[in-house]
């Protein structure tokens, strides 16, 4: 007799991002900005004053206030998480029951199905159209005719870089009484956020992260914004001390300075658009890349039958991007990094 893992665990393997040392990392959609010296000094000084023998504030009151102020929303609607990944996990584990049905719109962020599986739920997919846009009427029709418990999608989407405008999102929310998890991880790079109207819906939770535009991927800090009823349920379901004192303090400092965040974000948007323009020129001359999609994010997404080749040749030059086999995803880097990337891609394609 030996201990048997439960079925849902048997085929799982730990998350394995690209490891190793590379000169240019364009694989994880992080911000290319490092924290300013001023911010780093403030953080160091404040961390020295944290009472480390005491538990952190389980409600993240000050952090929620700073965050809400930066985004002009009500702090009572904010729940902080140890990355928005943690919030997805808590939501799937507590707002769903064994056997519930989750709707995703593929291609989509892979973690939704992952956490859904662990929660014992069935994930149903509807494919996006050939431009990787969400077919809103098809999705709404499906929701009206099938019992779905939760719809989850990223907008703008990772990995496709394509966004759905507010009206399309509103239609999906109103199509059924399923819980809608709207992952706005990249919405800092676009202008179609539903944050300001979150209280108008009884079935909407919006997720945000500090890992992309805000430049804090290493800190692990995400947020849920939802009406009071859903927020109370989420706060009750999460582990009480999920947010450590250091993360809370860093978040308080960073979100106290929204202008710096907006300036950095605007710079990244301009850099991404310029990278997109240059890449489009290369793609137009190449037979190896079928299509470059529009982007409302800080990355590019391309369709190609030569994904492995392009990926491996860039890696030989110490540049890593993300390989989805039929597609490639490339994070916008600094202007120097983008120039080097374009130079190497031009040689390959
Ligand atoms: C990066 C990303 C997240 C995860 O963010 P963390 O806060 O770092 O956990 C969530 N959703 C999407 C779509 C992402 O791309």
Key phrases:
349 residues, alpha/beta, four-stranded antiparallel beta sheet, binds pyridoxal-5'-phosphate
Explain what this protein looks like in three dimensions.
The structure is a single chain. The protein is of the alpha/beta class and 349 residues long. The chain has helices spanning 7-10, 37-47, 61-71, 84-95, 111-118, 136-145, 166-174, 228-237, 245-255, 258-285, 307-316, 335-348, and strands at residues 24-25, 78-81, 101-106, 122-127, 150-154, 179-183, 204-209, 222-226, 289-292, 299-304, 319-320, 322-323, 327-331. A 7-stranded mixed beta sheet has the order 2-8-7-6-5-3-4, with helices on both faces. A 4-stranded antiparallel beta sheet has the order 9-10-13-12. Strands 1-11 form a two-stranded parallel ribbon. A hairpin with a 6-residue loop joins strand 9 and strand 10 (299-304). Helix 11 (307-316) crosses helix 12 (335-348). The mean pLDDT is 97. Bound molecules: pyridoxal-5'-phosphate. Pyridoxal-5'-phosphate binds at residues 29, 83-85, 109, 154, 158, 183, 185, 209, 211-212, 217, 222.
Q: Strand fraction band? A: 15-25%
User: Order of SSEs, N→C?
Assistant: HEHHEHEHEHEHEEEHHHEEHEEEH
Hetero compounds: pyridoxal-5'-phosphate
Number of helices, counting only DSSP H or I runs of 4 residues or more: 12
Give the helix level as a range of percent: 25-40%
By secondary-structure content and strand pairing, the structural class works out as alpha/beta
The counted number of beta strands is 13
Largest sheet: 7 strands, mixed
Shape: globular
Whole-Å distance between the termini?
56 Å
Strand order of the largest sheet: 2-8-7-6-5-3-4
Calculate Rg over CA atoms. 21 Å
Assembly context of the chains: single chain
Task: Compute the average pLDDT.
Answer: 97
**Uncertain stretches:** none
């Amino acid at each position: 007799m030996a201990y048997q893992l439960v079925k849902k665990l048997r085929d799982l393997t730990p998350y394995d991002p690209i490891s190793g040392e590379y000169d240019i990392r364009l694989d994880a959609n992080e911000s290319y900005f490092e924290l300013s010296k001023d911010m780093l000094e403030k953080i160091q000084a404040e961390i020295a004053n944290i009472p480390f023998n005491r538990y952190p504030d389980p409600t993240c009151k000050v952090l929620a206030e700073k965050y809400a102020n930066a985004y002009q929303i009500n702090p009572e609607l904010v729940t902080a998480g140890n990355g928005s990944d943690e919030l997805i996990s808590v939501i799937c584990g507590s707002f769903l029951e064994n056997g519930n049905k989750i709707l995703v719109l593929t291609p989509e962020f892979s973690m939704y199905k992952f956490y859904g599986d662990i929660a014992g739920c069935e994930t149903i997919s509807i494919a996006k159209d050939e431009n990787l846009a969400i077919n809103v009427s098809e999705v709404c029709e499906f929701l009206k005719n099938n019992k779905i418990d939760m719809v989850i999608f990223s907008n703008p989407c990772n990995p496709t870089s394509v966004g759905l405008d507010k009206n399309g999102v509103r239609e999906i929310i109103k199509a059924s009484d399923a819980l809608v998890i709207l992952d706005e991880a990249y919405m800092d790079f676009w202008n179609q956020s539903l944050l300001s109207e979150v209280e108008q819906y009884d079935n909407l939770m919006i997720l945000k992260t500090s890992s992309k535009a805000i430049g804090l991927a290493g800190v692990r800090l995400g947020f849920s914004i939802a009406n009071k009823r859903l927020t109370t349920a989420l706060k009750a379901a999460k582990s009480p001390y999920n947010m450590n004192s250091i993360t809370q303090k860093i978040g308080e400092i960073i979100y106290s300075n929204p202008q710096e965040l907006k300036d950095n974000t605007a710079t990244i948007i301009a850099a991404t658009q310029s990278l997109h323009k240059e890449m489009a020129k290369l793609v137009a001359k190449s037979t190896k890349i079928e299509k470059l999609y529009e982007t409302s994010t800080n990355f590019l997404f391309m369709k190609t039958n030569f994904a492995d080749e392009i990926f491996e040749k860039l890696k030989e030059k110490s540049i890593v991007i993300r390989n989805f086999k039929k597609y490639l995803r490339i994070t916008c880097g600094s202007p120097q990094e983008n120039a080097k990337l374009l130079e190497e891609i031009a040689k390959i394609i």
